[in-house]
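To close the section, here is one more complete example, presented without commentary so you can practise reading it yourself. The ligand is MP5.
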Amino acid sequence: MAITCAHLIQDHLTVWEGATVHPFLSGCQTGTIRPEQFNTWLVQDYLFVKEFTRMLGRVLAAAPDSHLDSLLSGLEALKDELLWFQAKAAERQLDLNTPRQATCQQYCEFMASLATLPYAVQATALWAIEYAYNQGWQRPGPMPQPYSEFADRWGNPGFTEYVNILAQQADMALAATAPEVQQQAQAVFLRVAALEADFWQMAFGATA
Ligand code: MP5
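Output:
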């Protein structure tokens, strides 16, 4: 039987916890996160999202006709998100012309490396990356200002619906692939989970 997104989560619950539960996120919820930690995340995540946009463009290029509409809506949302990141950085007087930290660089290189893999593997990675933020920002529970705006961006019902569609699309693509491709999809899922955990840790470890 073909692997599915739900199976990937079920089979790797502990790994997925590591990707979506972190003191950075609970620190936002309790208001104890320090500005240098949050600002490091904000700048590095902007650099990440620019590369993620390029990744989504490549996934779109490989997608079947029936997936174009949802992926186009994802790209449109990213147009808005990049401008939003720029506005949030300006409010905090943060310089977005900052080099990528090693973890961000690794994540960007990983996303670039997906280009040569089968669509089903790329679709699995896309879903996992979005689901990590959809869950991560919701799991601590309602966040106080100024973090509620961030939690809502990735926790709102419309985004949850988009992530569900991405899971269905990945499942559909995986159903039609050989066992080797399904193994690749699992490996990519595990790599996303590890990179997500590292990304939170990178920001959490920031010093003034
Ligand atoms: C996302 C993100 C979600 N912004 N940053 C990381 C490290 N992982 C996942 O992507 P998007 O494009 O912001 O929904």
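Once you have examined the tokens, check your reading against these statements. The radius of gyration is 17 Å. The chain has a mean pLDDT of 97.
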